[in-house]
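Task: complex structure prediction.
Instruction: return structure tokens for all chains below.
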Amino acid sequence: MADPRGFLKSGREVAARRPVADRVHDWHEVYPGSAGRALLPIIGTQAGRCMDCGIPFCHQGCPLGNLIPEWNDLVWRDDWDGAIERLHATNNFPEFTGRLCPAPCETACVLGINQDPVTIKNVEVSIIDRAWDSHNVRPQPPEWLSGRTVAVVGSGPAGLAAAQQLTRAGHTVAVYERADKPGGLLRYGIPEFKMEKSHLDRRLDQMRREGTVFRTGVAVGDTLTGDQLRERYDAIVLALGSTVARDLPVPGRELTGIHQAMEFLPQANRVAVGEEVPEQITATGKHVVIIGGGDTGADCLGTALRQEAASVTQLEILPHPPETRPDSQPWPTYPMVFRVSSAHEEGGERVYSVSTQAFLGDDAGGVRALRLVDVALEDGRFVEVAGSQREIPAELVLLAMGFTGPERPGLIEQLGVELDSRGNVARDAAYAASVEGIFVAGDAGRGQSLIVWAIAEGRAAAAAVDRFLTGTSTLPAPIPSTARPLVV
Amino acid sequence: MKLVAEVGVGTVAAGVSKARRRGAHLRARRGDRRLAADVAQACRAVPWGSASRRASRPCLLNGLRDRIVVQTDGQLKTGRDVVVAALLGAEEFGFATAPLVVSGCVMMRVCHLDTCPVGVATQNPVLRERFTGKPEFVVTFFEYIAQEVRELLAQLGFRTLEEAIGHVEALDVEAAVHHWKAAGLDLSPILHRPDVEAQFAQQTMFCSSGQDHGLDKAVDNRLIELAEPALERGEPVRIELPVRNVNRTVGTMLGHQLTRRYGGTGLPDGTIDITFTGSAGQSFGAFIPRGMTLRLLGDANDYLGKGLSGGRVVVRPDSRATFDASEQIVAGNVIGYGATSGEIYLRGQVGERFCVRNSGATAVVEGVGDHGCEYMTGGTVAILGPTGRNFAAGMSGGYAFVLDLVEGRVNHELVELGAVTDEHAAELHDLVARHAEATDSPVARGLLADWPAALARFTLVMPTDYRRVVEARAAALADGLTEDQAAARIMEVLHG
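Output:
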């Protein structure tokens, strides 16, 4: 066990981010060097705060079932080789989750009942960054090939996790991606300042060396049909993601200058790594309004600030969440509390309890302003507050209001798989869709969720595919498709 | 009485009833070590359900059931568990884990490390601050349990829990035995309802009559009569009586009367002074309070001075004895068990486990068997003779002076050995002098005759952590800190 009294001797500590004045002028990650390197001086002590609980509730918080107390202990003992071995045992991509996960493990940490929880996510990113730095992450190609073939459609975290598991199990796996490079939201949704794409490329390189084949620029359902895919492969994993964005059909929606976040962010991410995007949507010099108070909105905020927007305002229809865990959302659930991401530190204004009534245009048909109204939550419904109407300037409006499910026309229709009541691809507890040989992993089946759930689904779906192909499987299946997060 | 059985727990339970114990406590897992004065524990490594049943049946067959309380525990969590246990024959139900969790336990399983993060299993003030449990939580939990029991009883057609006890026929086990995991399981021995002979047919299936302990024949009834001036008016009383080994727990009922009248403080030392001659039965002087001195000219059996609560017990051989008392056994095993205060002087040697769990009494003896001072948490012991092996095992408090100690016989896990320092020398001299006075011991007189030489032969046995606490507390009080601040300082010292 790690230091039994560590939690009594040391408080929670995180690494200092680069000064805001510096970091808003570049696209590099907000930690100096890398998150793992920035954390190195303190992480041993922080890992030593882990209490090695008899019942580790962090295991309940993390759908991957990460062996958190074990690698906390190993880090505390300075056994980094052992730590990465234990970490990779349950998580294919700790460098992604260590940067991007909102860490439901930490809200479930037993220490969090009455103290600040262990910095589990920081320990995770320290382990993997150090493993990469010491060339301790090596390809693990299969010893023999099964002769079976699997197509994974979609190269986001769910697809990549499924592909890596299946490749290592000996199957021949091709990952299809309609964009020019694999990664999905990891590449085009996540801004560079949250995770530099070199981390993704490094991991993709490992996968290629293991034998995973990537077919980019292929829009399955269009250039390649569902039938062709079924003919060619013994099994198909649909990891399409939840890509249909929720819209805001209010007067003025047709004005120019109103975009979905996922139109804005991919272009910015391409430019951040040196590509050129003709007619790029930029925030430079504009009054920017982001509609949606979630993580995608925060990504838009940090990106707009780096593009030197005149002002950035993030709107949220829900009330300002409490600073600390409310009684109605007790430990170990994941609570709705006021969170400050790195982008929020950098600037912008967050406005709560407001609803957009209309977009107001200028003579050229571009958006000029937004008409807002305060709303109050009464009996579960939003009621407009009389007399609270006001206009705020808006030359660029970004909609970050969530996603409603996978795109149904195209591949899903061609394959003829059934949808569930929410429009996601229906699957049984073992990830099998209604058509034999087709499996569903990630947001396409679950609806929009967290990266950690995507990786967990990818791993579990891989086990199901392996069993389908060979009759048995030793691949781990961390969660059934019916598992749900610890929230109230 | 704690009895451990896997097979034949029923026989054990019947024995419990015959031995006039109040209850048979069936533990599904290995039991704790608490002293259960009138409950016999039959510890089992099997589930409570079958244990309850198997314990009840032989008692029923022999007409013994209505004299004992059958208590069961071990992972009972719901009202349904209670009703099932009742139908199988239990009438008292022990809960531990569930109410503990209700009060805030998160099953950290670090109770032994003093790092309980929710402040349940710790004395550390920093951690105790974090305890958020309230008595109301536990009350509410048991109200829910009671509510569920009531509902299930209503469904089964019983008006009270007592009515339900032992009615195995009300258990529907169809679903359970048809489950694949239960394939091949034959529950009929557990569900069998024994044919009780006519002579025992009237007995209830729960405790309704109680045990006859024969207290009316106890020698203490006579003691209470004779000590009446002391009990009523606090006048000194001197009594001389013979004693035999059929007289058990001599002095305890008198002590009870004294405590009822004078409370925990008792009477002035030696107000009631009784001299017995003969061979005393078990538990001589058990639980006697301050104000009572029992002197025994002869010898005693086991458990002398058990739970001693301020009284004094002195044993020396009969004056006509020709042997050298220091070479002989004058009292049995487990002397001074769990004593909290008082004095014991024994001229001669004694058996195993001397002063086990002593928490505050002072005892002088001239030799002990194995496991002396085991689990001792307080008090002072002087041993003017040989010790057996495993001395001071689990000893966490108090200290012992041992003459000519053989170090190899000490369990060194918790204690450290050292010379008797000046601060303890006077106390030891006083102890030896009082022993000489009370028992006329030649051993003690010999030591006092050349005290500096005798002192050098003694070893002080003291628990390491206890010493640190004592020293830290003394230093803190010397610094002018309050008791609370001193406690905080002790925590710092121990975990520094």
